[in-house]
Amino acid sequence: xxxxxxxxxxxxxxxxxxxxxxxxxxxxxxxxxxxxxxxxxxxxxxxxxxxxxxxxxxxxxxxxxxxxxxxxxxxxxxxxxxxxxxxxxxxxxxxxxxxxxxxxxxxxxxxxxxxxxxxxxxxxxxxxxxxxxxxxxxxxxxxxxxxxxxxxxxxxxxxxxxxxxxxxxxxxxxxxxxxxxxxxxxxxxxxxxxxxxxxxxxxxxxxxxxxxxxxxxxxxxxxxxxxxxxxxxxxxxxxxxxxxxxxxxxxxxxxxxxxxxxxxxxxxxxxxxxxxxxxxxxxxxxxxxxxxxxxxxxxxxxxxxxxxxxxxxxxxxxxxxxxxxxxxxxxxxxxxxxxxxxxxxxxxxxxxxxxxxxxxxxxxxxxxxxxxxxxxxxxxxxxxxxxxxxxxxxxxxxxxxxxxxxxxxxxxxxxxxxxxxxxxxxxxxxxxxxxxxxxxxxxxxxxxxxxxxxxxxxxxxxxxxxxxxxxxxxxxxxxxxxxxxxxxxxxxxxxxxxxxxxxxxxxxxxxxxxxxxxxxxxxxxxxxxxxxxxxxxxxxxxxxxxxxxxxxxxxxxxxxxxxxx
Length: 565
What we know:
Shape: globular
Number of helices: 16
Oligomer: single chain
Strand order of the largest sheet: 7-6-16-17-18-15-19
Low-confidence stretches: 1-15
Structural class: alpha/beta
Radius of gyration: 24 Å
């Protein structure tokens, strides 16, 4: 068991196929599409070398650019800040370069199978991430209302936590057909997935996560709901998600996205950076040795986009921060969608009005982190009085909420994520500098570990991020509120542009906030592949009959469509 509140169904058969995060809304096997020897498709030879604007150099933009380059098109990447987006890995000034902090994505579930394709492609290594009570985590401390509990396994916690675990399992089974859906996803039984999900979308679209808990007899106890919110399952407390749609939560637990996480050795930002440098063995039109870097003057992306508008012939015209104006037959917008409302001057006719509404109503979660470098993983020292670890991965209702201990061996410098928070808990940190945040965090942790002098081990200045204060993000990730299913469907299905008026085509949306599983890098990859199919189709291309793309099978697996009236 790797979480305090486990999944309702445990899987022990090693022969079962791995689950994938394609999810119930659009059960398309992106991992099979990527692995097929026929490739992702082709465009007519007359289109080889045609430029496509890629706006945003995060993972979604770089994946889209990489695959379009392989097809023989010429991606032109625009990036306002740095390649990587929310895959942002930073170092500590004056410290060993191997010490890094993951300011954005830091843990990836095995169900991120399309993401795994690119991790393997560029030769990155992963290792287990030390989540609460995970096998890779030596010990966990749960500190609620001033009372701390030390645990090396879930069985070490008081009975009330097991009661909460049981309540969550019952709640999922009774209210969301958990076992049947989880099995259908694992077996890739598309008809069964669609049958179950159609019922649940209609039933639960207007329900909050908290309301879903309250509707369950298993969670009639407020105390149980409170513990569940503060401690949660898999990655920690989920009370910051209580106002969000329960559909968002079900997508996570069905696909086991909350469990068995792995981190990327050396930092997640290496993935988009290596793809930028990668020279594909198989590519069309371009000579061997071509990479995204070599296709861009001086090896750098174009600067930030400041204006997008349509021009004659249904072209997309892009103005960048250097004042350069270029016109394209197709463009892929992968930046945070609110940029279209604020940082980028846009014509109304870029999208149909219903899509503008969906962009405007997108709800984003705030998130903050603070890391400090330390001389060694001192937390593994044993307390001579108790025999316990000196310090543990910590979940608490104090300001820090989640504290993670990250090491690379007993004799090497290490890193502590002193605090990882979301929403209201993140906003509490917003006015404070990195040093001010650290002081509050050390005080809180000192109350949990009164005999531990964390400060004595700190060897460098802290690094921090509040994603809601980042000028090109304004939030960490999308999280739909009740009633937002229709909006998300419009954004996700935007790549199917034959259904749009002719003068609204050519600009494609992608990125994790366009996906059904925002906050996960897998969603960035999947929507990038949707956009690649859309651009290919826009240029008159097609996939191989043996490897149909997401647009080719759309009618068979399209997301549930709820009535608008």
